[in-house]
Amino acid sequence: MVEKAVSFATKCHEGTYRKGSQIPYIVHPLETAVIVSLMTDDEELICAALLHDVIEDAGVTENQLEEEFGYRVAHLVMEETEDKTKSWKERKRATLKHLEHASKEVKILVLADKLSNLRTTARDYLLMGDEIWQRFNEKDKLQHAWYYTTIAARLSELDSFTAYKEYKALCDQVFGAGE
Fold first, then answer.
1. Most buried by CB count within 10 Å: which residue of 37, 70, 101, 103?
2. How far, in Å, CA of 147 to CA of 95, rounded?
3. Catalytic residue IDs
4. What distance in Å separates the CA atoms of residue 130 and residue 165, rounded to the nearest whole number?
5. Taking the model in full, what pTM does it have?
6. 100 SS3 class
7. What are the Cα distances from residue 163, in Å, to 114, 121, 168?
8. Which parts of the sequence belong to the HD domain (predicted)?
9. Contact call for residues 45 and 108 (beta carbons, < 8 A)
10. Is the distance from CB of 81 to CB of 95 less than 8 angstroms?
């Protein structure tokens, strides 16, 4: 099933790149899946990590995902999917509210996704400094700091995982400790 999800996600993200780079977009779902696989051997959760952006970014429907990968994978992806018709701030508030009562599996998926994003941001921040924020829809570093540090608080039950510790350390590196 994982190989099928890799193939599906690769096809969905073909020809797309990470913001502000020439890195193929598929690198992000692959990295997200690797991070999840270091926390669990749950194949459906790993598949959801591979597929987590196909509805949001590639026009795949929940029904298509359910037909291909089953109800649980489709449901996990939907729990990670943002409503792109809303503003950045509305989407981020909705994510944070959702995490207050989300399952451990969803929190693992969110941690992996956000850690992958934050690794890229931290790397590019070292190269570009504050200019990096210009590549995003939300250009205010303080808004990103609010979002990423609040994510950390919402995922604190995962603090025994190395991925969580790395996430917190990268938040401190990019946004400053205690911000």
1. 37
2. 9
3. 56-57
4. 24
5. 0.94
6. coil
7. 10, 16, 9
8. 25-118
9. yes
10. no
